[in-house]
Amino acid sequence: MQLLSWIIPFLTFIVLTQTGSVIKDEKVRYDNHVVYKIKFSNVLQRQLLLQLAKRHQSYNVWNESPSELHLMVSPKAISEFEKTLNRANATAEIFIPNVQVLIDNEHMENSRATSTFGWKRYNNLAEIEAWLDEILEKYSDVTEGFVVGTSYEGRTIRGIKISYKEGNPGVFIESNIHAREWITSATATWLINELLSSEDELIRELAENHDWYFVPVLNVDGFVYTHEKDRMWRKTRQPVSHSTCIGADANRNFDVHWMENGGASDDPCQFDYAGTHPFSEPEVKGLAEYLGTVKDKVNVLLAFHSYSQVLLSPYGHTDEEVPDNFNDLLHVAKAYADAVEALPYGTNYLYGSTAKLLYMSSGATNDYAYQQGIEIAYTVEMRDRGTFAFVLPPAFIIPNAEETLIGIIALLAECKKLGYLALK
Ligand code: 0X9
Ligand code: ZN
């Protein structure tokens, strides 16, 4: 009895999570989890590998396109994965040999950087919010805070509007709807700072002649969870009744062709679970409601994601149809991609229709915005192409943000030329 009470506090309790493993109350670990890049040469191979990837939780889809799949495989599933590869006669390259090493390096770099808010490391939600408060106070004459709603766990989802004068066209930027895509909120906060503090003529012109609506972290619960528990978390944190799996893919939860054409999953354990019904996730409902109040003043919407360096335009739910202004959407995206590529970093962006370039995905933010009358609406998938994937080292925050800014300048110039920035 005495021995037992002595031992119990020292016993650790292993809990299996969606992919990694966690020692109770500690962070999920991804030791020896490998990310493979699988290249398909026919549809059958794709089908076989995707079937495997979706079969159980030793697999986690990181990126998908018609010709390629990036898949994280837990160590215990590697031999099964290799057998399936052989059976499919497909080849795979190891992209990331050990995900935990990337996470550890990121953690080390984050703790080495200065303790004040900045872009040399990734900031957590509390830091972002404290910084937002400072900014709102410092620039009170041209900024105002707004509230998008309340998350499942009761957090306030906040935004900031920047407006230097009446009658500007509106640009709406949503970021970190996917929790693990940290580069998106880091970039959004950097942009806010540039718009408010830069003395560069081009940036002043950009800042002062548009109204800016930023939601730096939409999926607040998921974001906090990535900092505190599981770096690779993607979805919201609302439990699903009758399932042990938690959360929905907020970017499949908008009421726009919801669950159509296989553009999302009805399995709560999948990365692209659409939720029980459109707007079942309070974060998504909140964004849609807020957007409803400003959409008549918003000309352009950008939904920030990572990774793969693409600009995706509607539609996500069908590859058989494109929007009426698809050619314009291509022109505008080309302007962004060309401007980014012309920088010394030389980063290459592809662009095109979501369903054609990427995969069927229904219920996403930019498709919803488009349906609501915001005719220029993209998903921006930022750096990189899989070398570091979601765990992009902090040293890349500023380069990524700089090229996003240059891309946006070119995008808006093209929108103006094509007549999309007129008052609605
Ligand atoms: O799958 C997604 O939600 C996005 N890619 S990510 O790797 N960041 O998860 C792309 C969504 C694009 N889909 C639509 N606009 N429909
Ligand atoms: Zn994403």
UniProtKB/TrEMBL annotation:
CDD domains: M14_CP_A-B_like. Residues 121-415 form the Peptidase M14 domain. It is found in: Secreted. Pfam families: Peptidase_M14, Propep_M14. Its cofactor is Zn(2+). One of its GO terms (molecular function) is metallocarboxypeptidase activity. GO terms for biological process: proteolysis. GO terms for cellular component: extracellular space. Keywords: Carboxypeptidase, Disulfide bond, Hydrolase, Metal-binding, Metalloprotease, Protease, Secreted, Signal, Zinc. It comes from the Eukaryota. The active site is at residue 381. Residues 1-19 form the signal peptide. PANTHER family: PEPTIDASE M14 CARBOXYPEPTIDASE A DOMAIN-CONTAINING PROTEIN-RELATED, PROTEASE FAMILY M14 CARBOXYPEPTIDASE A,B. Involved in the digestion of the blood meal. Belongs to the peptidase M14 family. This is Zinc carboxypeptidase-like. The gene is LOC117564674.
